[in-house]
Specification:
mainly beta, Thrombin, subunit H, six-stranded antiparallel β-barrel, 1 helix
Length: about 120
């Protein structure tokens, strides 16, 4: 069971966005969508084997209060969580027990394409 007192990390949830520069070239950047308090839990090696998928290793779960604007299909590689200087790539997001109280993000750590 999650408790609000365990939300002790301030994180930014970001979405990859594209724009054209002055020369018409496509550029990518990250846009802050929300700043929220979260609980970040590293996943043990045993859990990695159980929850990992081919080519991706689950490294963290991040829990935060439910928000309608974040409970949507999140395309892998298009969303991330900035936690200090660390980047957690969001692989999936779901409402815990479908109760709309908590959102759980399954993440992998590291930059996406150098960003």
């Amino acid at each position: 069971m999650l408790h609000a007192g365990r939300l002790n990390n301030l994180v930014k949830i970001q979405k990859r966005t594209g724009a054209k520069d002055a020369y018409g070239q496509e550029t990518e950047s990250w846009t802050d969508i929300a700043e929220v308090w979260a609980n970040i839990k590293p996943i043990s090696g045993r859990e990695q084997m159980r929850f990992g998928t081919l080519g991706t290793t689950l490294t963290h779960t991040v829990a935060t209060h439910y928000r309608n604007d974040l409970d949507l299909p999140m395309q892998a590689g298009a969303w991330r969580i900035q936690y200090g200087s660390r980047m957690l790539n969001i692989n999936s997001c779901f409402s815990l027990d479908e109760a709309h109280q908590w959102l759980i993000f399954n993440c992998t750590e590291g930059a996406i394409n150098g960003h």
